[in-house]
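BUG: 3D viewer hangs when loading the predicted structure for this chain

Environment: internal workstation, default settings.
Expected: structure renders.
Actual: progress bar stalls at 90%.

Input used:
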Amino acid sequence: MPAPRQGLGVLLMYMLAASGHLAWGRVRVGLNSGKNGLTGAGAVDGFNWPIGAYLRFDGRRNVRVLVGNAKDRTASLAEATTVHLGHDDALSNRAARYAAVGRMDNNDASAAALGVSIGTYAPGSNVRSAIGGLRHIF
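Structure tokens produced before the viewer hung:
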């Protein structure tokens, strides 16, 4: 006979997002909240918000900006703030060069990773990343 399973409760998610296309680019704003009403292990009570902009310059150059915050409102009180800045420049219809930098600040309870970085980080650490390269569409 299998052991009884402990329920995770019902997870209530609320999401609000808005996106606007403007002559000079696109702006996106979002809010996301989730809660399941449990305490201790398995508890979910989080809130996060991202604000992003994609700015076009002269049809060939683009700048991307993202600022966000994720907060765990359970007993852990983990919180992480991110800032990303990227640029791409079209070299032709099928090729572009790009560069991006990012930073994430974790509070003393958070060990979140920045983007797709590999590894884990000590709580309270500040993670930085940089990337650059050439992109070609075949």
